[in-house]
C-alpha cells in the first residue's frame, strides 16, 4: 500500500529559518545570571526541546534547582531576550531552498503547515514574511505535550483535514522525527547531523527537493 502526499508539515527553527543563535544569546544571558557555564555546543543539545524542558536541562548542567516562581521568572526573561533577538530577523534569514520548495508544493496543491514547539512561531513567520504561505500553524501555545510526543502533528493533521499517512514532515531534531513517526507520518531529516536517527530520508538542506522528488520518495515508502 502506498501513501499519497497531500500535506507537507515543517518544523520552523532549523528547517525554514535559522534561529539557533537567537536562542543561544537568550539562554546564555539566563545561564550567566545563574553562574552556569553555557556554550554554543550546550545550545545544540536544546534543539527541538520545549522552553520549560530547556531550562531544566540548563539547571541540570549547573547541578542547580529553582522554585516554581524562580523558574517562571527565568522563562519570562528568556522569552524577552529571545524576542529582542528575533525582532532583527528578515527574509534574508530564510534557509536555502525553503522558499522555492514552498512555492513549488503550493503550485501542486499540497497543503502546508508549520508545527513548531516555539511559542513565538507566528511572530517569527511574520518577521520573515512567510506567514501567509502556510495553511495552518500549530505552535507551543497550542499543545500540552512537547515533541517527541505526537500531539503537535496529530493536531496539525486534524486542522488541515489530511490523514497522517498522507503527511510528510520536515524536521532537524530527533525529537521531531520521533514525534512525526509516532503520529504515523513520514519523516524527512533536514541537516548534516549524524544524529538524525530514525528519519525515513535525510537531506542536507531543502535545496535539492521539489514536488516530483518528494512524490517519488513517498511512492517508494510503503506502510502497513
Question: How would you describe this structure to a colleague?
Answer:
- This protein is an alpha/beta fold and 224 residues long.
- It folds into 2 domains: 7-18 and 91-219, 3-Layer(aba) Sandwich (Rossmann fold), CATH 3.40.50.1000; 20-86, Orthogonal Bundle (DNA polymerase, domain 1).
- Helices cover 42% and strands 11% of the residues.
- The protein contains 9 helices and 6 strands; from the N terminus they run E-H-H-H-H-H-E-H-E-H-E-H-E-E-H.
- The protein has helices at residues 20-33, 40-44, 51-61, 68-86, 98-107, 121-127, 151-160, 174-182, 211-219; strands spanning 7-10, 111-115, 136-138, 167-171, 186-190, 201-203.
- A 6-stranded parallel β-sheet has the order 3-2-1-4-5-6.
- Strand 4, helix 8 and strand 5 (186-190) form a beta-alpha-beta unit.
- Helix 1 runs antiparallel to helix 4 (68-86).
- The longest helix has 19 residues, at 68-86.
- It is globular, with a radius of gyration of 17 Å.
- The mean pLDDT is 92.
